[in-house]
Amino acid sequence: MSPLGIFGDQKPKQHTQKLPQKPKKVIVSIGKQVGKGSYPPDAKVTAREIIQDARDEAFRIKKAAEEEASKIRQESLELEKRLAQKEDLLDERTVQVEKQEKQLTTLREALLIQEEELAKLRSELVNKLEKISSLTAEEAKKLILENLQSQLKNEIAKRIKEAEEEVKAQAEFRAREILANAMIAGATDWVAEYTVSSVKLESSEIKGRIIGKEGRNIRAFELATGVDVELDSEDTNEVRLSSFDPIRREIARVALEWLVKDTRIQPARIEQLVEKAKALVSQNMSDAGRRAAAEVGLYNLSQESLDGLGRLKFRYSYGQNQLIAAVETAKIAKKIAEELGANTTTCATGGLFHDIGKIEVEKEGTHVQLGVELAKKWNFPKEVIDCIAQHHEDEPFSSTESVIVHIADAVSGARPGARHEPVEEYIRRLSNIENIATSFAGVEKAYAIQAGREIRVIVEPTVVDDTGIVTLSHQIREKLEKELTYPGQITVTVIREVRAIDVAK
């Protein structure tokens, strides 16, 4: 191929790509071709341009590489400089730490020497004091503590009073608000009734038919109902029904009223109406249980538990109807739980069933124990069972809900008119309160007032000073809480009065 065959007769193409970074090979190749023959003028110009472009490109690449190398060298120098500075700083800190360690070691040794000297000096002083005072170390310690207690007596009373005022300022408003809202929510219609069931008769003539020939009717009635029938000899036209079981008494009352209206009083008819009365009373109790649960917002209770709850309708304690008291306690507990952020369902259920053990009139044990057994039988949650078990503090409180049910029960039972208390029990409770107050040294007289809700204590001014009455009030309060059971709360007021008497002649 001739040298011109490289390009041919066509017009040379314009180069768009960069030449290789080693342009010397291209120059050698062109040189060889020039040795064989001569190129056309255009080819020479093009070759020169290519060579020039290759040189420019090589120059640019070299320049860029030099700049990059210079930049890398500069960064390396700066990095070496920073590392050197850090090494110097670490060396300085190492020297400082070593210096501080030496100082600490020296101080520790000095302190040990001083402690040994102080211990030795203290032992010598104690021995000298024991010889001088003729007291042992324990006797001296006791004497110092007694003196210190006497000196701090005023300060203790002051601190107690300040703490009381601070707590009252923070808690009084909130407590009043919570209890007021709870009592409003727990307001129920109240029925003041005692456990005496009686049936009025239209005439004394019906008494004879109730007794029957040779007393067969009254015997059949007592056998069917399980109650005792009392017919007054006086012309009162009233029949009294006596039984320890209030449900039996209610069944007997309903059956007797039907018999009086029916006028056909005979053993067969008595048995028939008694069975009918049992079914009616059972249905009434079941309905009462459902209404009570719905009134406090509980709807997922078993029928057996509702039937048991309804039995409280005919149960009274201190003249207080237990079903009404249970509903009231549940409402108060639920409201307090809402205010405090506790579990409202647990509090409502615990309050509604807290006295459920009172329906077990024929079993031995406290109503708390019997109530826990019934709750377990009905598969109540453990939290509700704890509320029942702890509402009289027979067990330590295990949850906030248990405390709330205890408080709600106390509020329900302590409100005016809730309960009827026999005079003998009332007088005994007041006497116990006064006896506890007078058992403390320095108490001259004590008076229980406001139905036992406050105790006024008068002290001897020569025995108890102004600061001592604060401590005395706390001691009386703690003893009352520990030894007595009472509804509501008792306010302890300690009075110290100093009188100066003289006679002008």
Q: How would you sum up the major sheet?
A: 3 strands, antiparallel
Order of helices and strands: HHHHEHHEEHHHEEHHHHHHEEHE
Total count of strands:
8
Largest sheet: spatial strand order: 1-3-2
Query: Terminal Cα separation, in Å?
Result: 167 Å
What is the mean predicted local confidence, pLDDT? 80
Please give the count of helices.
Answer: 16
* CATH topology-level name of the largest domain: Hypothetical protein af1432
Beta-strand share of residues: 5-15%
* Gross morphology: flat
Q: So, CATH architecture of the largest domain?
A: Orthogonal Bundle
Spatial extent as radius of gyration: 51 Å
Question: What would CATH call the class of the largest domain?
Answer: Mainly Alpha
Tell me the count of domains: 4
Function: Endoribonuclease that initiates mRNA decay.
Family: Belongs to the RNase Y family.
Pfam families: HD, KH_1, RNase_Y_N
Enzyme class: hydrolase
Description:
The protein folds into four domains: 95 residues; 91 residues, Ribosomal Protein S8, Chain: A, domain 1; 119 residues, Orthogonal Bundle (Hypothetical protein af1432), CATH 1.10.3210.10; 72 residues, 2-Layer Sandwich (GMP Synthetase, Chain A, domain 3). The chain is built from 16 helices and eight strands. The strands form three sheets. A three-stranded antiparallel β-sheet has the order 1-3-2, with helices on one face. A three-stranded mixed β-sheet has the order 6-7-8, covered by helices on one side. Strand 2 and strand 3 form a beta hairpin. With 505 residues, it is mainly alpha-helical. The N and C termini lie far apart (167 Å). It is flat and about 155 Å long. It is an enzyme of class 3 (hydrolase). Endoribonuclease that initiates mRNA decay. One of its GO terms (cellular component) is plasma membrane.
